[in-house]
Amino acid sequence: MKLLQLEHIEFDVTVENKDALFTYLANKLYDLNRVTGANEIKEALLKREKDISTGVGDGIGIPHTKDSSVLFPTVLYLRLKEVVPYEALDGISVKDVFCIVMPTSYNKEHLVILSKIAQALLDETKAKLIRTEENKEVVFEALKKEIMSVWN
């Protein structure tokens, strides 16, 4: 199973709040058969979130975790229809969400993927393409190029 697939990307997602966002992510992961249970992965994401917010700034959230409920390493990208309060480090509500989940057998791979996403988003041209392009296939190819450069 590939880390990132076209169906892992969604635009105009509507959620009311951060809890609803995490429920949406968990259900999406479950529906894609990437985890054994939606409740388990949601709890794992929330547990990680309690340590420190994964709202990294500039309207971007990168919730990530390793958990035994994860069947396959996965990256999701959601572009929200409206911003959601997220307790981000800069206080800005989140509109773009990159979710990274890994099985517990993976050591630091999720941090490498997180780093590659962060690097891409620091590049103004790449960030604009990923965050504003309306063609899902174009966004998929851009993300794939960034992430897959470190993932075999």
Automatic annotation (TrEMBL):
What Pfam family is a match, any one? PTS_EIIA_2
Q: Any stretches that span the bilayer, and where are they?
A: none
| PANTHER family, per database record | NITROGEN REGULATORY PROTEIN (PTHR47738:SF1), PTS SYSTEM FRUCTOSE-LIKE EIIA COMPONENT-RELATED (PTHR47738)
Domain PTS EIIA type-2: from-to ranges: 2-146
What is this protein's name?
Answer: PTS system fructose-specific transporter subunit IIA
UniProt xrefs under CDD domains: PTS_IIA_fru
Any idea which GO molecular function terms this record carries?
A: protein kinase activator activity
